[in-house]
Amino acid sequence: MPREAGPAKMIQAILVFNNHGKPRLVRFYQRFPEEIQQQIVRETFHLVLKRDDNICNFLEGGSLIGGADYKLIYRHYATLYFVFCVDSSESELGILDLIQVFVETLDKCFENVCELDLIFHMDKVHYILQEVVMGGMVLETNMNEIVAQIEAQNRLEKSEGGLSAAPARAVSAVKNINLPEIPRNINIGDLNIKVPNLSQFV
Amino acid sequence: MALKMVKGSIDRMFDKNLQDLVRGIRNHKEDEAKYISQCIDEIKQELKQDNIAVKANAVCKLTYLQMLGYDISWAAFNIIEVMSASKFTFKRVGYLAASQCFHEGTDVIMLTTNQIRKDLSSPSQYDTGVALTGLSCFVTPDLARDLANDIMTLMSHTKPYIRKKAVLIMYKVFLKYPESLRPAFPRLKEKLEDPDPGVQSAAVNVICELARRNPKNYLSLAPLFFKLMTSSTNNWVLIKIIKLFGALTPLEPRLGKKLIEPLTNLIHSTSAMSLLYECVNTVIAVLISLSSGMPNHSASIQLCVQKLRILIEDSDQNLKYLGLLAMSKILKTHPKSVQSHKDLILQCLDDKDESIRLRALDLLYGMVSKKNLMEIVKKLMTHVDKAEGTTYRDELLTKIIDICSQSNYQHITNFEWYISILVELTRLEGTRHGHLIAAQMLDVAIRVKAIRKFAVSQMSALLDSAHLVASSTQRNGICEVLYAAAWICGEFSEHLQEPQQTLEAMLRPKVTTLPGHIQAVYVQNVVKLYASILQQKEQAADTEAAQEVTQLLVERLPQFVQSADLEVQERASCILQLVKHVQKLQAKGVPVAEEVSALFAGELNPVAPKAQKKVPVPEGLDLDAWINEPPSDSESEDEKPKAIFHEEEPRHTRRRQPEEDEEELARRREARKQEQANNPFYIKSSPSPQKRYQDTPGVEHIPVVQIDLSVPLKVPGMPMSDQYVKLEEQRRHRQRMEKDKKRKKKEKGKRRHSSLPTESDEDIAPAQRVDIVTEEMPENALPSDEDDKDPNDPYRALDIDLDKPLADSEKLPVQKHRNAEAVKSPEKESVPTVEKKSKKPKKKEKKPKEREREKKKKDKKGEDLDFWLSTTPPPAAVPVPAPSTEELAVSTVTLVKDEGEGLRREELEDEDDNMDHDQERKSSRHKKKKHRKEKEERPRDKKKAKRKQAAPLENGAAEEEEPIPPMSSYCLLAENSYIKVTYDIQASLQKDSQVTVSVILENQSNSFLKNMELNVLDSLNTKMARPEGSTVHDGVPVPFQLPPGVSNEAQFVFTIQSIVMAQKLKGTLSFIAKDDEGATHEKLDFRLHFSCSSYLITTPCYSDAFAKLLESGDLNMNSIKVDGISMSFQNLLAKICFHHHFSVVERVDSCASMYSRSIQGHHVCLLVKKGESSVSVDGKCSDATLLSSLLEEMKTTLAQC
């Protein structure tokens, strides 16, 4: 008997996109084809975009993903929206705090995180997220523990020489001289995510 | 050409990394797609390289492209390659890519099984961690089945980092492979008390999620969770537990009572809003489950409502939102407490935040009463006008309808008002809910007879403005209301003022632009109208006018005949012919009105939607039986047109009553009349419109100002429905006056002073009433409201009883790579046992109090829970043992003694209890002496009864009274003064030539046993699997050591070629026994018996499949007979099931058919018959040798019975 891959996830999706709807992190815990994923990101973006910053951070997702049992819980930091799509088993305020934990962890790991960090290090952001949420379930909420694990893994990676230990690194200097496409000045305004201190929790 | 080659290899050196790719994309804003397709080509080149670093880099870039919406599933195989890289850096890249793009449909996913298994058992915790994380995203049923055991092992890993991940992923495994739940649950439960808070939190997380889906199976964990709740300080854990209690309390109200106090304490004490909020939520759930009055709970409700009010008044919009959300839960059971905050909620309707407005709307539903309905709806109507987004407006619309129609229009006092509200709603542009409005119009017009006249006048006005409705909003579905309008005007045409005008409106050419199903209704109802007009005209002897109408129809109907919609076309051409015929008759001067009206004679009665379903099927009527033999070939059934409104049903399903004799009918009619007379909601046949104001009993003599409804109520500049608010006020005022008068009269008689008249809800009598229930339901309807669970619910598979002891067949499939397993599993196997024993000395120091508590824990789960629940607050539960607990403990002691064998087995299977249980046993042993005498006096059967209760056995037993003696599949292998060895052979369906031998080694001496090694003399047919590189003469080391008094289990894999014969292998267990005096090398010889039964796997079989198997005739037959059997048939069968792995197919009296299957696919069928004191077994099997071997073995088993 084939078992359906029903909506089994407590956190169904985690989306990070900027004020223009450009995705910075797309993490679905239920299978959607890529084009649907993009569509969901777009729709979610339009939903949160029209909301003022001073109104509530919950949105009934409705038709988007999963149906009535699901809610969108989001926070807006500087240029980025962090959106979690969760079902009723999660505490709404708890998830808000989790987003805060995630962002503060990013802040620690990247040292004053800004949108550029997320743009160029999507893989690292994923690895950090993996220590917070696993398979749609909350794995760890203690920031010190999360950071410790990430640093340990970074050390391990360093000891192995890193991903770009390949020839690529050896010639990177040459590349930098020759390639015209290196952006001279990246102008995306003030990107620093200000992490407000509003933990109601822990 | 050469240049190109060179260029290519240089390019390779310039491979982009992720940052280069991102940068590149950002610099190619204008031709992004082109640039990316270039990059993908490059990536494809890179993936062809042998260098794993290059591949990993490529896969990393692909992951980025996936985020941008590019399908990267084509690289699945390369991703697997990167996953299997030895370096963590690359592995992580691979798993990340896999977690983003693998899913159940990915075909190469099965290639990953071994790689993942290898990573899971990697010595580096981060390799394991990465594999677990990845797997959590793409686990499939196959992966879950194959890896369940490995993951379960990881749940006891030494590193908490791995433990917590393993615990969490188990939830995914359960979902994909529900069979794993029971074997893994005991360990999962253990993790609730893990020393690491992260692991504990993960376990709480998983169990809460499981329990949320199937709460009843987890009730027995309530005491444990309660303990966690009162001891934990982790808010995450607390929130999860409190949420879980919210799900459990509806099943066990006593639990709720116990919870109230600690929860209210938390509410008072916590500063974390999230925790406060969840506490309030659960208190609400508790109070709902305790709905039957407990006076002191009103205080809790008040507390909750108060706290919620604080949340709602908070400036933080999030809290406001959640406050409203929770308030709506209270509303369902305690509407009064919420209603007092109406002001607050109405205020929220004006909030700038749509989410909050929607929540407030939800609350309104429960706040309306007869008194304030009009006022609230008026407010909502102004919101409808103001609303910008269609979503919110649609929501408002449905809410208005919900609010008004709830519980059979309970709160509506004036239906004219309601109809005009509905009509006003039709002016909404762009709504999707036209059909909702239409359904309401139909419902009201049909069920509220008194309103029909008014409804018809409104509907005809709607039809008249049809062009407005249709032209502007045709696409948006508001035109659906025309469906209702047309039908109402047609069906109740006798109430029409200007039928001719309406008829013309319905025949306008514009009508043909409406959707087909509406046109069809138009056509049908045109004829109804026509019939009533004819009647009128003929009565007035106005033949000319009558002919004109006919002419009109003949002229206009052809436009429908040309319709593309089949239904419209058919109806129109039918009717056109009819009208033409009428025309001919009219020309001859024949009166036709009577006959035409006869087409639509009879009144329509409302029928409740489920009425048909509730008529009980008369005895002897088989609805599934063919009335006539079905026609030989399939005549494709026409698809039924979809009913758009359920109100339409009455027309299709005129109820056919089973015929009753006259007397019975008369009796029922009488009974019904009686009932109707007593039913305030029933209106006796056709009251005149004026009469409804006089319905209130005893007021006939009071002069009433009549409202002439034929005069339109339009007041310039004011929407219609507002009029009614005023009128209604006047009406109520009148009513009040009347009542006051009455009261005064009465009071005069009684000489008492009147108090100030206060208007309560009940005092407001509705102006019109709804016909319901009595007429709409068949007389002998069955009260039923079964809404079956959705059979496709993925969580249904997880509805598994967890308290039942594990059966033999329920082990997780173990892939015996014995070596790897043995190396990494010491924690798994030995740790608990060591702990068990090492607790022994501590034990004795334990205070009697604690022992008492443990004793409580031990008795079967159900009792446990009862006991826990029955005691008042937790601290009070400790002192002085209740006599009943004492008794239970003693009887278990006897069990240990009488049925030591059985208990051993239980201990093995039932990890569930291992700690408590073991300690229990010891503590009770400790007590044994004291109670021995008492015990011996106790009748034996009582003990047995206890035993049965304690461990219900599966395998098709259960229904008979006689208890089944405990059985163990472990039999003695060898024993000496140092060690006792028992073993069991387990086969698995996945391996057709492999069995696992589980050997329990029990150290019986005071020495420390180590370097244990097991060796057997392989036969041609049966060989022990040894680690690679070792010869047949090398033994296989046992992966643990045994301190004194400890036992543990080791598993060995054997490969077998033929399974048709039983086989014995000679072997030796060698070990070093070390004690204070020194170490000695010891040996223990044994003979390992591979019975044929151990190759069988309990496989359920349905009787029809069984019959087919027997009929097939490919089976060999053999039989045995054993005399002198005293055991009951029930137990006998249980024994065969247990020892020989059969399952009962069917049992009739003292005869049963049984089935099993060998790992190599032989079918074995048995017919077991019991005589006076003998049993005969007839067997059929696809292999004769196997059958005779099996029967021989069975003979031995039976001989012992």
UniProtKB/TrEMBL annotation, chain A:
SUPFAM superfamilies on file: SNARE-like
Domain AP complex mu/sigma subunit: 10-156
Cellular compartment(s): Cytoplasmic vesicle membrane; Golgi apparatus
Highest taxon in the source lineage: Eukaryota
Keyword Zinc carried by entry: no
InterPro entries linked to this entry: AP_complex_ssu (IPR016635), AP_mu_sigma_su (IPR022775), APS3 (IPR027155), Clathrin_sm-chain_CS (IPR000804), Longin-like_dom_sf (IPR011012)
Membrane association type: Peripheral membrane protein
UniProt keywords, alphabetically: Cytoplasmic vesicle, Golgi apparatus, Membrane, Protein transport, Transport
Keyword Protein transport: yes
Annotated signal peptide: none
Family assignment from sequence similarity: Belongs to the adaptor complexes small subunit family.
UniProt function note: Part of the AP-3 complex, an adaptor-related complex which is not clathrin-associated. The complex is associated with the Golgi region as well as more peripheral structures. It facilitates the budding of vesicles from the Golgi membrane and may be directly involved in trafficking to lysosomes. In concert with the BLOC-1 complex, AP-3 is required to target cargos into vesicles assembled at cell bodies for delivery into neurites and nerve terminals.
Protein name: AP-3 complex subunit sigma-2
Organism annotation: Microtus ochrogaster
Gene from which this protein is expressed: LOC101993251
TrEMBL record, chain B:
Pro residues bias locations: 872-882
Regions of compositional bias (Basic residues) in chain numbering: 732-754, 837-846, 923-933
SMART domains, A to Z: BLVR (SM01354)
Protein origin, superkingdom: Eukaryota
Biased composition (Basic and acidic residues): 639-651, 665-675, 791-836, 896-907
UniProt cross-references to InterPro entries, sorted A to Z: AP3_complex_dsu, AP3D_dom_metazoa, ARM-like, ARM-type_fold, Clathrin/coatomer_adapt-like_N, Mu_AP3
Region entry Disordered, spans: 623-696, 722-963
Start and end residues of each AP-3 complex subunit delta domain: 660-803
Location in or out of the cell: Endomembrane system
Membrane topology: Peripheral membrane protein
Keywords in alphabetical order: Membrane, Protein transport, Repeat, Transport
Acidic residues bias: start-end ranges: 773-790
Predominant subcellular localization, coarse grouping: membrane
Similarity comment: family membership: Belongs to the adaptor complexes large subunit family.
Protein name (record): AP-3 complex subunit delta-1 isoform X4
